[in-house]
Design brief:
single chain; mainly alpha
Length: 394
Amino acid sequence: MTETVVSTRTPQPGVAQSGVAQSGVVVPAEPSGATTVPRRARDSAGRLRALDGLRLVAALMVALYHYGGRGGEVAQAWGTSPRDQFPTLHTLFAYGCLGVQVFFVISGFVICMSGWGRPLTSFFASRASRLLPAYWAAVLLVTAVFALPVVAYRAVSPSDALVNLTMMQMPLGVDRVLGVCWTLWAEVRFYALFALCVVLPGADRRRVIMFCAGWMLAAVVAENADMPLLDIVLMPEYAPFFIGGVGLYLVHRDRRDVYGWGIVAVSWLIGQHYAVQSLWHAPDPQAFSYRSSFGIIAVVTLGFVAVAAIALGLLGRVNWRWLTVAGALTYPFYLVHEHLGWVVIQALHRNLGLASGVTFALTVASMLLLAWLLNKYVEKPLTPRLRAALSKTR
């Protein structure tokens, strides 16, 4: 959810390298005559605009879930449960939480793309400068709004707010300013694993394949190892989605890459298992809503298929310039939409008496506007400066 899609490097056609044995497994190098994605799938700057659009779709899925697909604090904003506000749609909105899994697949694809052929310092500078400016602004903004007397929601303590600026609040057990920051903690751990195992020694196809295979095997073993540290580092529940995205980048480089397709297939099979395990429950009239196992599998599958279609260049015609803007708005929108959305919903629905549907639409629009302001006045001026400062070598 935090990525900027950058240009790719395709393997040189006709250049073959011999396979090498690693840990007893022979992994072939780039095959001769690799079939790469057509250039039309990318614009003149090498940007996959369809991926930008998919990122915004995933963010809007999460917004549907936070505004109308769950209970909790949002019910205070509406005045009643969202189930009463959206008697039919709330069940569909409940599937919106799977937008996070779609984000993770996109993240795996983009991080592998951006880390390929890049030194560790440049990779770190790119990730930190992309994540931090909007994140800092969102933490300060939500803290300030929740501290207003007219806002009914409790603000975190000043000390906890300061800790949140480090992005380390999850492992420290500190109250979160942003409800969605748990996904950023997962992203940061993925970045660290990828940086240490792939970027630092130098990204190439063999190393990426071994990284995916090793991480997947270790994550599966960690599931039943009863060792919390392994769960924290290896993230069994989310690893298949990141790994699946990395596999799809291998397919993007060479659509005939059997290893890449194998990584994608195994990731989808294990990923849908974890999604069903965490989100499915037996029908219960007391529950907010009911997600069927088929529906969960279908949404996860659509996420993989959508990224695969982009990786294969099948959505090359989806190349509208406004999708670049959509991609730029996704991250700040994702950061602020939940908690500040509650404030807007209460103001529009309970205070001004607007209908539920109108309130929903205006809340999404207002959060997109706020995201545009954050992108224009925070990210655009600060991101290049922070990247340049972190890229300097001494």
